[in-house]
Amino acid sequence: MILKNKVVVVTGSSSGIGKAVAEAFAKEGAKVVINSKSNKEGGDAVANGINALGGDAFHIQSDLGNSDNVVEFFKRIVAKYNTVDILINNAGRTIPQSFEALDKQHWLDTIDDNLMPTILCSKEAARIMKLKKQGAIINTSSIRGIDHTGREGIMAYSAAKAAINNFTRTLAKELAPYITVNAVAPGFIHTPYLDKCSDEIKQNWLKLIPIDRFIEPEEIANSYIFLASSPYITGTILIADGGFTLKIG
Q: What is the DSSP code string of 163-223?
C-alpha cells in the first residue's frame, strides 16, 4: 500500500463524501485526521470506527473558514503526527436560495463555507509540505462548478465551486514541482443530502445521468485515492459524474 502511514487530513469528513474518503484512505493504511464544523458526534463516530478496525484516526472539530482556527488545527495535527502528507479539502455545504432572495450575507456565508476553508487549509498544508518537498492537495469541487453546469437555486454554491476549480489550477502552478494540486468534481452522489430530495426530483436527475444511477460515496472515494497516488498528475479537475456533463450544454 503506497499510502501506508501517510498522514491524510480530510476536512468535512463526519458524513457523506468526506466520511467515505477518510475510510478509504484508512483502508490503504493512512493515518487519518477527521474534521467536522458542527457534527461532533458524526466526526467522533468516523474516527472511532476507523480505530476499531485497527486504523489510526482522530477527530478535530473546528470551523475552518476562520484563519486562526486553521492555524490551530494544523498545529494539533503536527503535534500528533509530525507532518501532513495529503490534504483533502472537502468541507462545504449547499443552501438552496433563489437569485432574487440572495443578499450579500448569503454570498459571504457561502464563500466562507465552501471556498475559504480550501484556501486557508491549503496555505497551512503547503507550508508543511514544502519543508520536505513532497505532498498532495485534493479539493472537492462539483459538477456545478463547471462553466456550463451551474444550477439555478444554488448560484452562490456554483460560483464558489467554480472558484475552487480556478484556485486548484493556479495553486498547482504555484506549488510545482514538488506538491501536486488537483480536484474532484463529483456528480450526483448518494449522500444524506440526496435522500432528502423528493422522488420526482431524483427521477428527473436520473434522466440526465448516462449510467442511470447515482454514485455511491465509496465509489467516489476511489477518485481521491487515485489522485493521491499519482505524482504525475497536477492541475486536473477530475469530473466523476456518471456522464452527467455529457448531456448538459
A: HHHHHHHHHHHHHTTTEEEEEEEE-SB-SHHHHTS-HHHHHHHHTT-TTSSPBPHHHHHHH
- Three-class SS state of 160: helix
Catalytic residue among 157, 178, 224, 232: 157
Cell matching residue 69: 482556527
Q: Which residues of the chain have pLDDT under 50?
A: none
Residue 2 lies in a domain: no
Report the number of distinct structural domains present in the chain: 1
Q: Cell numbers 454554491 label which residue?
A: 157
How big is the chain, counted in residues?
A: 249
pLDDT in tens, 169-215: 999 999 999 999 999 999 888 877 777 788 888 898 888 889 999 99
Residue at 187 is within a domain: yes
In the annotation, is 178 catalytic?
Answer: no
Full residue range of the structural domain in which residue 22 is found:
7-247
Q: In this structure, is residue 1 part of a structural domain?
A: no
- pLDDT, one tens digit per residue, over 79-93 is 999 999 999 999 987
Considering the domain boundaries, does residue 157 fall inside one? yes
Task: For residue 204, give the CATH number of its domain.
Answer: 3.40.50.720
